[in-house]
Amino acid sequence: MSSIARIAKTFRRTLWQAVPTVIGIIIINFFLLQLAPGDAADVLAGESGSATMETVAALRARFGLDQPVLIQLVAYLDNLAHFSLGYSPRYNLPVADIIGQRLPGTVALMATALVIALAGGIALGIVMATFAGRWPDRVISIVVTLFYSIPGFWIGLMLILLFSVKLGWLPSGGSTTIGSTVGGIGLVLDRARYMVLPALSLSLFYIAIYSRLARAAMLEAQAQDYVRTAAAKGLSPLAITVRHVLRNALLPVTTVAGMHFGGLLGGAVVVETVYSWPGLGRLAFEAVMSRDFSVLLGILLLSSLLVIIANMTVDLVQAWLDPRIETR
């Protein structure tokens, strides 16, 4: 079977598996949020300071919060069937518009953090495996252990203290310079400056995991017969590492990276709060505090879709990396 046919078969299989998963996630998320105390009408009435019981009842009737749970579920599913995520009582806007404003920031932050984590983790893993048992391996092991054990919010605060307060090299919060009128490359560079610290804070924990995984996988691959055969044929150590060892060592790293995509989104809640980053993480936190469950349901659904897409991508990458993986 050719590589394209194998990848196409893997894509069809994972797509069929994703459909019931998404439906299950939608229904479970809906019922779990129903267990939370209070609703958006309570929060809006509390913030007004002078709302009466009649006002609260009118708010619930306006947004359908006074309906039985099953009727609310049917209405929610009907909205989804018409490609609508509903309406936010808190923001007085369609949920899709609110999420659309925050989604690019979170996707850019997560993608940058994942690239940094994979590139940094694999590079450190190669160095650790190459110098296994010697001082570079031991020094890097100590450093990545620190990355793994220190909470992300503390790392974020220390990076702000060092690079923003002491050195003044990078901004401490936000996503772009307020009032800036630059465009093109200048705008990209300006936003990149604001992304360095949040992406680094989010990626350090995963750099520790991927470096240890890459080290173990490379040491295991180096002991295989096909590597000794390649060395006996006269291939250089660099060619053996790139062509034979690293390709097999990437399999466990890519598998775990797909599983960590959801964790990255969860970590983004803390990082976006620390750095005042306008993304879905902060929006989810604000939606929880204001009991805006329509927004929260939309974020959970979108997050689930992103995780499923990430896992599908991992399956396709693995089908490309290892032809021995059979599609069923």
UniProtKB/TrEMBL annotation:
GO terms for biological process: transmembrane transport. InterPro entries: BPD_transp_1_N, MetI-like, MetI-like_sf. Keywords: Cell membrane, Membrane, Transmembrane, Transmembrane helix, Transport. It is found in: Cell membrane. It is a multi-pass membrane protein. GO terms for cellular component: plasma membrane. Pfam families: BPD_transp_1, BPD_transp_1_N. Residues 103-318 form the ABC transmembrane type-1 domain. It comes from the Bacteria. The chain crosses the membrane at residues 15-36, 107-132, 139-163, 192-210, 249-275, 295-321. PANTHER family: ABC TRANSPORTER PERMEASE PROTEIN (PTHR43163:SF9), DIPEPTIDE TRANSPORT SYSTEM PERMEASE PROTEIN DPPB-RELATED (PTHR43163). Belongs to the binding-protein-dependent transport system permease family. This is ABC transporter permease. It comes from Bradyrhizobium arachidis.
